[in-house]
Amino acid sequence: MRTSIATVCLSGTLDQKLAAASEAGFDGVEIFEPDLIASPESPEAIRARADELGLSLDLYQPFRDFEGVGPDLLEHNLRRAGAKFSLMNRLGIETMLLCSNVGTARSGDEQLAATQLRELGELAERFGVRVAYEALAWGRFVDDYEQAARIVRLADHPRIGVCLDSFHILSRGHDPQAIETIPADKIFFVQLADAPILSMDVLSWSRHHRLFPGEGGFDLAAFMGHLVRTGYDGPISLEIFNDTFRQSDAASTAVDARRSLRLLEDETRAWLGRSSRGRTEQMTARPLPVVEPPADINYVELRTDAIDEMRTLLAQLGFAAHGRHRTKSVELWSQGAARMVLGRPETQPPPPTVAGIGLSVSNPDAALRRATDLFAPEIHRPEGPGDESLVGVRAPDGSEVFFGLEGSTEPKWVREFPVPDQPGAELVERVDHINLAQPWQHFDAGVLFFHSVLDLRSQPSMEVAAPVGLVRSQVLRAADGVVRIALNLVPSGAHDDAILPQHIAFASTDVLALARQARERGFHPLDIPANYYDDIEARYDIEASLLAELKELNVMYDRDEAGEFLHFYTQAIGTVFLEVVERRDGYEGYGALNAPVRLAAQYQQRRDAEGVPA
Ligand SMILES: O=C(O)c1ccc(O)c(O)c1
Ligand SMILES: [Mg+2]
C-alpha cells in the first residue's frame, strides 16, 4: 500500500512538513495549495526538495467551484485551471483534486457538469495532467460520491476520474459498498480520514474534527476493503483537518499518522480475510503480530519527589512495604496483586508522575514486536546482574509501557525486592483502572497508541465539567474488561494542570472496611460535600444506614443496571492521587456522575492547601 499525507495535516512551513512526512516514512504527500502559495521556494525547488527526501508529490489540491456554471464563468474557470496545470507541470505533479462546486454552480444537471468536466479533461490532456473529482459532503448540487462517479462516467474522458474521500462518504452515512461499482482506472485518488461521531453541521465537522484512522468512529476497514476489491492500487492518503494537529509538533503527528495507516492496513487485511472476495495482495506490509489484550496491570510506577507522603498514603491504605530494589533506586509496595513501584524522577525532562505501567501478556516478545512495528519507540533499561529484563515501549505522553509474562503467580521481578516485614491488609485485590491525564496535543495519539498497540477498545468518550474547564475522558478497555485505561484531556486553558492529576484506582472487596481501617491509620480522604449525599439520596433512595456510612467516610456511590459502585479518593499528592473502588454485582462504569463533584472537591482542596480564601 502506497502511503501519502496531505500537507494540511501538519504544522509548520512547507519544508518542515515535507521533512516530517519523509522522516515518518511516508511514500508521498499531497500539496495543499495554501502551503505552496505561502512558500518562499519556487515550484522547481520544492520538487527538488521532495526528490531529495524521497517523497513523491501525489496530488495538488484543492481546485474549487468549476462545474455547473454558466458559459462566462466556465471560460474564466478554464483559464484558472490552465494556470494551475502549468504550475503542476513545474512541480511535476500529475493529479489535481477538484472539489464539487459549493458556490457558483447554477444547475445540478449532471450532463452539463459532465460536458464541462470533459472540456477540463481536454485542457488537462494538453498539460499531461489529470483531474480527480471529489464530491464534498456539502457540495451545492453534488454531495455524494456515486453522483460524482456518474458525472465522471458521463464525461467519459481519460483525464477525468474521481477522488474518494472517506470523510465525505461516511459522514453522510453513505454506503461505501458502491465503491465496488466504480472501475479502478476511474479512481484517480483516495483520501482517508476518521472522525468522532458528532452531531453538527458537516462542514465544521470536516474542517475542525477529522482524525487519523483508528482515533474516531468510522468503519474505515470496510471502506478500504471495498476499495481494494476494485483493484485500485494508487496512494492511500491521509487528509486530516484538525485544529490540534495544526498546532502540535509535525514530527510526532507524522508518526501518529503512519501508525494509523499501519494499523488500518492490518485491519483491512483482516476485513478482506473475513469477506468472500478478499484480495489482499495490495496489503504489502507484513501482518502485525497478533496479540491478546493484556490480562492485567501488574504494576504501576510512580515517580515523585513527594515520596514520603506517598509512602504514608500507601501504608494507610494497607499496602505492604517491600523496601528498595536490590540494584535500582526504586521501592515496591504491594497489596493483593496491586503493586506500586515508587521512585524519584531521575530523567530530564521529568517523566509523568505515572511514569510506567507493567502489563501481563501471553507473549511479551510478540507484544513488543507489534508495538515497534507500529512505530512505538522501544525502551532499553539498564539491568543489574540476574535482574529480569524488562521489554517495553514509550507512549505518546512520555510514559513507559512494559510487557511481562502473564501467569497465575506473582511476576518474577518481585523477588528482586525484599520480602515485606508485615503483610498487606488484603482488602485491595488489584489495580482496577488507571487514569492518565494527556497533554491536550497528545490525547488522540494516546487513544490510537493504546488501541493499536494493546488491542484495547475505545468506549464512547465523555465530557466532565471541572472548575477549570471541560475534561474529555475516554476509557480504553480489554474485551474481558480487566485492563482499563482512561485517558483524560487536560483543557488547553487549564494552566494549573495539577487540578487534573493522574490517578490509580484499586479494586477492593470491601471499600467501607478499607476506608475505616485507613482512617484508624490516620488517613484523611478527599472531602465530599454534604450536598452530594442529599443528591444521591434523592436519586437512588439509598438505605439510611448506608447513606450515613458513605457520608461519614466520604465514600461516593453510583448504580447501573447491573449493580452498585462504591469508591473514595485520596487527597492529591502533587499531580497524582489514588482511588479505591468496589464493584458490586458486575457494575461496569466509573461513577461518571460523581466526576464533576470529585473535580470540584480537588479544586477546593488545592485552594485550601494554598490558603486561598473560599
Ligand atoms: O474543506 C474543504 O474545502 C476541502 C477541500 C479539499 C478536500 O479534499 C476536502 O476533503 C475538503
Ligand atoms: Mg478530501
TrEMBL record:
Alphabetized InterPro entries for the sequence: DSD, Glyas_Bleomycin-R_OHBP_Dase, IolE/XylAMocC-like, VOC_core, Xyl_isomerase-like_sf, Xyl_isomerase-like_TIM-brl
Pathway: Aromatic compound metabolism; 3,4-dihydroxybenzoate biosynthesis
EC number: 4.2.1.118
Record field: catalytic activity: 3-dehydroshikimate = 3,4-dihydroxybenzoate + H2O
Segments forming domain VOC: 430-571
Residues binding a divalent metal cation, per UniProt: 134, 165, 191, 239
GO molecular function: 3-dehydroshikimate dehydratase activity; dioxygenase activity; metal ion binding
Biological process according to GO: 3,4-dihydroxybenzoate biosynthetic process
Keyword Magnesium among record annotations: no
Enzyme class: lyase
Keywords recorded for this protein, A-Z: Carbohydrate metabolism, Dioxygenase, Lyase, Metal-binding, Oxidoreductase, Pyruvate
Keyword Oxidoreductase in annotation: yes
Cofactor names: a divalent metal cation
Binding positions for Mg(2+) per the UniProt entry: 433, 503, 579
Function: Catalyzes the conversion of 3-dehydroshikimate to protocatechuate (3,4-dihydroxybenzoate), a common intermediate of quinate and shikimate degradation pathways.
Entry similarity comment: Belongs to the bacterial two-domain DSD family.
UniProt protein name: 3-dehydroshikimate dehydratase
Organism: Mycetocola zhujimingii
